[in-house]
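DM from R.C. (forwarded with permission)

"hey, sorry to bug you on a friday — could you get me a structure for this? deadline for the figure draft is monday and I only need the backbone to look sensible"
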Amino acid sequence: MAMGSGFQIHNFDLAKLIEFATTAQADVFLKTADGDVLNLRSKLTQLLALSGSIDWGTIGEATVICENQEDETRLFRLNLYGEKK
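My reply, with the result:
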């Protein structure tokens, strides 16, 4: 797995990002400020995030890494990260 550098997103809705990842052509990773890397296409990650067992809410800042360039372009166009401050 060769991960690119990705791009920073701010104040985004994790459920919306996971919804995007389920339609992606390849894996989509979320790297948190703490250095954790989550595969958003993983059913376990989706289950934990959407079950409410962890209060993910809106994550302030993270890096999204798409293995497929077309997915990254599509994600960027979706403007999931909201307004930069």
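R.C.: lifesaver. The longest helix spans residues 14-23.
me: no worries. The domain at 7-78 is CATH 3.30.1340.10 (Histidine-containing Protein; Chain: A;).
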